[in-house]
Amino acid sequence: MDRPIVCIVGRPNVGKSTLFNKIVGKRIAITEDKPGVTRDRIYAEAEWLNKYFTLIDTGGLEPENEDTIMSNIKKQAEIAIDTADVILFVVDGLDGLTSTDREIGNILRKSGKEVLLACNKIDTPKTPNEIFEFYELGLGDPIVISGEQGLGIGDLLDEIVEHFPENKDTEYDEDLIKVALVGKPNVGKSSLINNILGEERVIVTNIPGTTRDAIDTFFNYGDERYVFIDTAGLRRKRNISEKIERYSVVRTLTAVDRSDICILVIDATEGVTEQDTKIAGYAHDNGKAIIIAVNKWDLVEKGDKTYLQYEKEIRETLGFINYAPIVFISAKTGQRINKLFDLINIVNNNYNLRISTGVLNDIINEAVLLNQPPSDKGVRLKIYYGTQVAVRPPKFVIFVKNKELVHFSYQRYLENQIRQHFGFAGVPLQFEFREKGD
Fold first, then answer.
1. Which residues of the sequence carry a binding annotation for GTP 2 (predicted)?
2. Are residues 338 and 368 in the same domain?
């Protein structure tokens, strides 16, 4: 079963992003007191009363506005509404009912989805008379809240979780390995999912964009449980254009955020593309484990050194993720799919690997003896000790004297020394240098 999805919609500047950040508990959506700041959908995992769900923030809707940006916002909101289990319709309780609110209300009633009406920006205990205008929408009792002050949010969340479908999974599963299949459209992500499952769970055609959105597929293999997130190519078969392509990238980045491990699927007949590089960079910057799967390997004409040459080209283009293992597969024939699973398990173990402080400092001390830290104007960087402070991804804090002397090349050297001892295949390592007392 997959997570319930709650989508926040409304006209511009009613406080949707502020409410989104309040529910999620951290500042994810950019909030500014002007319309149109949020243009793309933003996803985050949220929780209330031990019930976990996915929350989506959307750009402000103006149904009759044909402006290019507003048209794009409307398309993004439509995608979110299509996938939502509960729609949270946010209105400005101080402005009262507007014609745009009525238009949006009409759209939401026709959607057939569960809709809750939230009257925002009510920062005082006294309910203004404008609230009663919203009964005209025919969407039930308005729920009075203040996203800025946090007033009424608990009551609102109580209502939201009451409307979750019974067939949705709201439990938190720490043992579940979340794997996102990412890459440009039509590289075979859906075919790979179908091969793994042994059935046609995901529609597969040779037309880019068949996958409408990110699709979660739960799967058991051996003693492990996985959820595979198959990311969208293009939203629709018709009207394929650069701006619609951008939406597919947004959905892919969202899948990366939700995952532990990203499998970057590359078309062997095309090689690494600019979009592949951007997706890999986003995964790396966000500390996700990465595996590179070169699909359609059965279509490549082989020579004595084809494999080595192809691997060399990938390493040169994606040098910033040289820790990522590469596997050459065919989703069509099933070639090396078992090896892909082995890699997922190895990388997942590395993602959760913790080095004891004593062993880590033995490695650091040996590294310092082999290669002295950098110096500047006669002052040399002094390293006191290090400790691992986190996993998923592994993060190391190194205590030093004069942290301004830390050079990127020496950090890379320390990283290489740690990898020589523990490998950490598929996993980015994060470092923070602190002075004593920081």
1. 183-190, 230-234, 295-298
2. no
Binding positions:
10-17, 57-61, 120-123, 183-190, 230-234, 295-298
**pLDDT of the residue at 27:** 56
If you search the block for the tokens 């040996």, which residue do you land on?
A: 366
- d(CA 333, CA 111) in angstroms, rounded, equals 41
Name the token pair of 147: 């996203």
C-beta neighbour count of 221 within 10 angstroms: 13
Is 11 or 240 the better-scoring residue by pLDDT?
Answer: 11
Q: Which structural domain range is residue 219 located in?
A: 177-351
Whole-model pTM over 0.85: no
Spatial contact of 45 and 258, defined as CB atoms under 8 Å apart = yes
pLDDT in tens, 95-137: 889 888 888 888 888 888 899 999 999 988 777 777 889 999 9
Residue 418 — φ and ψ, nearest 5°?
Answer: -65, -40
Residue positions forming the annotated binding site for GTP: 10-17, 57-61, 120-123, 183-190, 230-234, 295-298
Lookup result for tokens 């960079």: 281
Alpha helices of 163-301 — where are they, by DSSP H? 189-197, 242-258, 274-285
- Please return the burial class of 303, using the count of CB atoms within 10 Å of its CB with bins 0-12, 13-18 and 19+: exposed
Residues 6 or more apart in contact with residue 308 via CB below 8 angstroms: none
Structural domain tally of the chain? 3
User: CA-CA distance, 57 to 51, in Å (whole number)?
Assistant: 19
Instruction: Report which DSSP code applies to 214.
Output: -
Helix axes 68-83, 242-258, angle to 10 degrees: 40
Average pLDDT in the chain:
82
Domain end: 101, 132, 162, which one?
A: 162
Could you report the per-residue pLDDT of 317-374, keeping only the tens digit for each?
999 999 999 999 999 898 998 899 899 999 999 999 999 999 999 999 999 999 999 9
Torsion region of 181: left, alpha or beta (phi above 0 gives left; psi -120 to 50 gives alpha): beta
Is residue 167 a part of any domain in this protein?
no
Q: Report the pLDDT value the prediction gives residue 237, as an integer from 0 to 100.
A: 37
* Residue 98 counted as domain residue: yes
Do strands 224-230 and 177-182 pair parallel, antiparallel, or not at all (unpaired)? parallel
The answer on 361 and 301 residing in a single domain is: no
Neighbours of 412 (CB within 10 A): 11
